[in-house]
Amino acid sequence: KRRQLLIAGAALAGCNAQKPAFKGIDITGAPYAQQLELTDVQGKPRTLADFRGKVAIVFFGFAQCPDVCPGTLAEIAEARQRLGADGAKVQPVFVTVDPERDSAQVLQAYVAGFGGDVVALRGTLEETQAAAKGFKVYFAKAPGKEPGSYTIDHTAGAFVFDPQGRVRLFVRYGSGGAEALAHDLKLLLDGA
Q1: DSSP assignment of 108-163, as one string?
Q2: I need a surface site. Which of 16, 20, 22, 120 has the fewest CB within 10 A?
Q3: Within 13 A of 68's CA, how many CA atoms are on the CB side?
Q4: Are strands 90-96 and 119-122 parallel, antiparallel or unpaired?
Q5: How many angstroms separate the CA atoms of 176 and 163, rounded?
Q6: pLDDT value for 174
Q7: What whole-number distance in Å separates Cα of residue 159 and Cα of residue 56?
């Protein structure tokens, strides 16, 4: 009887295991953000599996974005810096939602300003739409101030994957800064 009580107690203790105290939105087990198949700036096909072993941060944006995209990429760079040597275990992945203007050369130059190892991905408009749909990311052209010019309205947040390649967090733009992001990245690097 004592053994049965110990087993029952252990089972109950497992039920009460605390979830990690993430600052970002915990989307562990989400049925979306499962696949990403686009080409990097060197022309190499890439998938989410390429980033296993690291904490990957996937962000959809575009090079001519005036605020959200550079702000997000700068925040990711600062969070990695706060992690010290562990920052090398975090892989930023930038997916353009403006394949019309964001050539491989444009993307390569753009992401270089946020760290030499940011992976930039692009595809045709159709491939980009499929990737965005798989992540539940919204994007659409919006007319600019000058005739023929445009900007892109898009979801302002990043998806964070653990080293096993599972989507774990959605981090809204402006929701906590580099300190909060570094906190969450550290939890994932420590096995949360």
Answers
A1: HHHHHTT-TT-EEEE--HHHHHHHHHHHT--EEEEE-SSTT-EEEEE--EEEEE-T
A2: 16
A3: 18
A4: parallel
A5: 22
A6: 84
A7: 8
What is the pLDDT, as a whole number, of residue 148? 84
In three-state form (DSSP H/G/I as H, E/B as E, the rest C), the secondary structure along 4-37 is HHHHHHHHHHHHCCCCCCCCCEECCCCCCCCCCE
Residue carrying structure tokens 């600062």:
78
Q: What gap in Å lies between CA 162 and CA 53, rounded to an integer?
A: 8
HSE-CB for 90 with a 13 A CA cutoff: 30
> What predicted TM-score, i.e. pTM, was given to this entire model?
0.88
Give the H/E segment covering residue 56: strand 55-61
Pairing outcome for strands 25-26 and 150-154: unpaired
Residues of the chain with pLDDT under 50: 1-16
Q: Given this model, what pLDDT does residue 192 score?
A: 82
What is the identity of the amino acid at 161? Answer: F
The predicted-structure confidence for 14-55, as pLDDT tens digits, reads as follows 444 567 789 999 999 999 999 999 999 999 999 999 999 999
